[in-house]
Amino acid sequence: MSDAPPLDRRRISRALTRVANAPVAEVLAAIGDSKVQPAFRIGITGPPGGGKSSLINALVQERLSPGTLDTLAVLAIDPSSPVSGGAILGDRIRMDAIADLPGLYLRSLSSRGARNGLCDNVVDLLTLLEVQGFDEIILETVGVGQSEVAVHEVVDTLVVIVPPDAGDSVQTMKSGILEMADIIVVTKADMPGARRMASDLSAVLNERSGRSVPVLQTQADGRGVADLDRAIDAHRNSIVENRTEETTRESRRRYHLRALADRQVEEALRANPEITEGTLKASYDRLLATLRA
Amino acid sequence: MTLEKKRILIAKPGLDGHDVGAKVIALALRDAGAEVIYTGLRRSPEQIVRIAVDEDVDMLGLSILSGSHKELAASVIERLRIEDAADIKVFVGGTIPEEDFETLRAAGVRGIYTSEMTIESVIAEIDSQLS
């Protein structure tokens, strides 16, 4: 650690709540258009119960070890109940080893009904954390199947975890989230089948995509996590070489605009139920008129 | 229910390892629409307050069966004050003898929920505290 000032946790968390609950106009005012330095963003995704939270618990210790980063934020998303809209946010249960790290800010989020493994305002929250000056952000998605690939669009390095007992579900993941992976981690590597799973994944992915995707193995006690830490840095260096900052900013801007537009449409439909009356054409025109107003 | 978008922390301080009551309350709050953060077992008052601040919760529930409810609740409430987060309301659940209610309330505890109460009445009280 350097002698950076301690995080103003109260202020940061208040700001996140405000942005999380605000209508689009207020969000724009809050996160502004200041050209903030984009933070390096790592996404962690994979099936439910696959070991995402345990992996983050170990990975954050590596990322924040002495002489590395000063500050790191983790956003951990859990699914909301489709019945009540409420949520149990339990990622902290498996993140006890990092609970006291001074440079860490950890926030649990409800998916609030989103179906893409994220929550619909996740980009606003990521941007706000960048405004607050975090060096790095880890985003943990909801436990996902094969199709929730949106996380790929909002992070720099995507880590996809696969538990050794994933079995046939890996067959379906091969087209989908695994294709988006920058690094694959077979978790629970002390379980039978882990090595086989890792070599199968390695063979299939690297043969088909023609790019070299590292396939690593980790255990709950932290074994293998230092390798993951190094693989993340290696990927970071490779994208710095191969992709300009403008490209990153441009593609993130596009995603952010789409997310804001989606929410604006939601807000308009909720506030003006009459939009949906009449023919589809009439509804569409009314919707556009409402958005312009 | 009006607990939609309310954030509530359910915390297990101290050394007792029984969290069935904490989980029952957490599920009931979720069913009432709240976003419930659960800490897991054996958290210190320092850790609990840091979580409450990081998560910007509206209310913090301490589930305590060990008998140290007076000390733990007072410690958490004092630390919330130090962190400029005294607006986070604290309630206590578990095995709390009635003769301790007065002390807990004087320390700033807003609600005391024992196993004699029905879940519905606990949720209704939390709901009225937050509306």
Structural account:
The complex is a heterodimer of chains A (293) and B (131). Chain A is an alpha/beta fold and 293 residues long. Chain A has helices at 9-21, 24-31, 52-63, 122-131, 169-173, 177-180, 194-209, 225-242, 245-271, 280-292, and strands at residues 40-45, 72-78, 87-89, 104-110, 136-140, 157-162, 183-186, 215-217. The radius of gyration of chain A is 20 Å and the shape is globular. In chain B, strand 4, helix 4 and strand 5 (111-114) form a beta-alpha-beta unit. In chain B, helix 1 (20-31) packs across helix 5 and helix 2 crosses helix 3 (69-82). Chain B is globular. The model of chain B has no long low-confidence stretch (mean pLDDT 90). Classes of the chains: A alpha/beta (293), B alpha/beta (131). The A-B interface holds A 9-10, 13-14, 16-17, 21, 80-81, 83-90, 92-94, 96, 99-100, 105-108, 110 and B 1, 3-5, 7, 26-27, 29-40, 43, 46-47, 50-51, 53-56, 83-85. Chain B: Residues 5-131 form the B12-binding domain.
